[in-house]
Each structure stands twice: as C-alpha cells, then as structure tokens.
Amino acid sequence: MSEAVVSDLMRAYVYRLAEKGERVDGRALDEPRKITIQRSFVKTAEGSARVKLGNSDVLVGIKMSVGEPYPDTPNTGVLSTSVEMVPLASPTFEAGPPRPEAIELARVVDRGIRESKMVNTEKLCITPKEKVWIMFIDIHVLDYHGNLFDASSYGAVAALAGTTVPAKAQGMGEDFPLPVDHWPVSVTFAKIKDVILVDPSLDEERMANARLTVTTDENGDIRAMQKGLSGSFTYDEVKRIIETAQKVGRAIRPQLQS
Amino acid sequence: MEDIEHIEKEMKLIDEKGVRLDGRKYDELRPIRIEAGVLRRADGSAYIEWGGNKVLAAVYGPREAHPRHLQDPARALVQCRYNMAPFSVSDRKRPGPDRRSVEISKVISEAFSSVVFKEQFPRTSVDIFIEVLQADAGTRCAGLTAASVALADAGVPMRDLVASCASGKIGGVVCLDLNNVEDNSGDADCPMAIVHGTGEIVLLQMDGHLSYEEFQKAMDLSINATSQIYELQRDALRRRYSVTLDEILKESPPAPPAPQAPPPEPVEEPEPASDSDFGPEGI
To answer: What is the pTM of this model?
Structure first.
C-alpha cells in the first residue's frame, strides 16, 4: 500500500462530500479530530506526553542536559527538536536517516515553540557563555493517520509543560518545573480542489494539493506558518485560514494546559 | 536514578533472606502485561509493559521485500528492527541504530526465522519493528515477547509463540529477570528465547561470569518463567479475539418468530484496544 495512491472511488467521494461541506468521518470542515493526551507516559524522560489526534498517535519525550550556549545567545538555554518517523508507524515509513518530511515536521514544530517564546529560555542559563540547559524534544511517531504537524506540536507543548528540570542530579540546587510563559497552538489545513478543511485525515492529506500550518498564541497572534505541497492559496483563503486557526486554537489550548 | 545508585552503594543487591532491592525473590518475574492489536496502520501489533520497560512491536507483511536483491525465490525473509527512543534511557540516546541495536535486531530476526512458515510466502518479507519507549533492562526479551504476539495478531502462520526471558547473577546469587540497577552492577546476564511447544531455544546470549552449575540454574529459572510468559501471550490474544457467549447473545437478542429472517449483522473487525489504558493487569 502506497501513501500516494488513493482509489478513484475514495477521491470522488471526498470531493463530493467536501463540496457540500461534509467529510467522510462526519466532521465539519473546521472541526479537528478528538485529542487525547496522556501525560508523563515515560519515566526515563524529564517530561513526556502521548497524544492521539484521531487515530494518529505520537509520543514526545523531553530530555534535559547541560551544555554550552550558542555564541550569539550566551544567556539563553538551547532548544533542539527532532522527529523519528519509525517504520512501525506506517507501511510507507522506512528506517534510515531522517527524510525531508521528518526534517520539515521537526522544524515546523520547533518554530512554533521557539517563536512563541513558550519556554522562558533566559531562566535556563546557568553560567553565561559557559553553561546552559539544553532541551531535547524527541518526537516519536507511533501510528500515522494524517496531520502529524498538529499531533506532534500538541505532544511537544504538553510534554514541555510537564517537564521538570533535573537540577539536583547535576548538583545545581533543587529541581524546578520548566518555566512556561506562552501556549502556542498549531492548526493545519489541507486544500482539496478549492475546499479547505482543518486537521486532514490520512485520506484527505494524501489527496490534498496544498497545506498550511498556522501557529497562534493565547492573544491570537501568529507565531509561525508553513505552507506545504505544490498547490497554492489565494490571499482571501489565507485570511480565512488564519481566522479559523485562531478560533480552533482557542478551543484546543485549555486541553494542552490542563 | 541517582537516588537508586546512592542506595545501592550502601545496600546489597540481595539480602541474607534472599530478598532483592525491589522486594522480589530470586525466582520472581517483574509484573508483566501484554496487549495485542494496539496500532491501526500495522498488520499486527502488541504493547508490553514489563517492570519499568514499555515496548511496542509492530508487524508488516508478508509484503514485497526491500531491498529487492535480498528477495529469496524460495521463502520469505524475516527482518527485525529494534530501536530505542532517545528518551527511553536516562542519558538521551542519539536517534538511529548503534552497534548494540543492530546486533539485537539480528538475533531477534534469527529467533523468529525458524518459527515462521517462510516457505508459504516466497519473495516476500515479514517486517518486525520493535520500539523501546522506556527501558529498564531486559528490553530485548520484552521486545521479542511482544513481537511474537504481534506476529500472531498479524495472522502470520508460525509453529508456536516464542517467549523470552533473562536470568543473571547478582551478589553471587543466580536470579531471574534482572532490572536496570541489578543489571548495571550484576555479575552476569543471560537472555534466552524458547519455542514453548517444542522446547527449542532460538535465542541465547550471555555476558559476565557464570560457572556451569550457575548457568544451568539460570536456564532452569528462565525456562520456568517462559511458561508463565507464554500464558500471558495467549491471554493477550484471547482478550483481543475471543467472543463470549454473552456477547453473542447481547448482539442478537432472541427475536420473536418473524416471517422473514433478520438481515445478517455486518462482520466488523475487532476495534483496536486503544485509549489511555492498555488493558487489564497481567500478573
């Protein structure tokens, strides 16, 4: 079974429904799938969250270690995000070095967290120019059913929010919770013909010709965007997408915070 | 982690009464629970919690073998990939295969090669993926035990389930199923896997120092434990697939005699047991 192949029958069915504002799984066009979050799933990590977005299943673990800051930001902690699309998660994923899809996914998740200043990295400085905390966000995809951008982002935000910095083990005082200031929420849209829908399922994602991810903060301000695939959006479509991202983001944010 | 290591310096791994740090006796397994059919995309899958280990296994295939030059015109390939999540251990593991996981993948592939009816699927590959999400020593045994259930869940024909367990030596005493603390400061570790029905040993490794007598004792402990593990594997598959008489009656209550027979119920695949809870407790 190849990811690129969607049967003509399914394609026609999705088109026909979309034109009426309906979807195969009964959702409205602006309705994301159900989100389930299991916090502190992994005890070996300093923070973790397993997120199911519909049937997509992602496990995110946070590891904290002490290292050198970048020379241009000597007073701030370091954030590093990577994604493993392990072949357990889909018949189309293969073992080996990260493919462009995994790198784009990691960078888009990273951007939402970094640009929203979710974590106060200045509080993660130990000795300026010498020692800072490094946050490793590792995203492990377990079951791929579409829209890994949002599933991974929700997992990363929920995992970071529950992370304890292991200062005691490093002989640097008491452990403390990771300082979280903001709450970015990523919302991804797919365009099929001229219909735009939120949180595409696997089939919808496979037949989409364009994709747009918008990350907004608690004020509704835009913190990161990424357009993908070969299709295009009109300016009006982009404006409508941002308005929907703000609305959907407001609805999802309390789930990530609790 | 540091606390445990601190305690360990002052405390023996096993005391005079034969009680280990986690309260177990020398011949006791850690709690194990197994659940079959936990992933949607995979052809078969299983999740296992074994003490502090959390491991997922998935099976794809028999499917076209890749890379193609590995295809065997007479039989299927059995290929396993064992992988540890970066956050599964206390010091972050760099993503991707290292020498240890390549070796473990190889010995697990070979363990399953003799039980799968490979001749039925020429030119194909049966791919087994083991993801260690949280590690606490004994991950290869946990992974192999889960992979065996995942193969059955995928409907891959095989002679029997393979059950796996390790024994080792701590503080001079041969003990079953070492945890992480015991493994790090123990004297020996000996993982094995066995085909339950025939007693064939399909995986055997050892490191450390054991006398011949100690080795025999370790194997006896492991063989005994794999019988218990085999029952847990079967229970997991039964929970996933068996339907009780009550359930059948509930779905189609005895209707009053009608002139026309009711339309047959559509046959549905069992829902993957998912959600936050991974099913009832094992032992």
So the answer is: 0.85
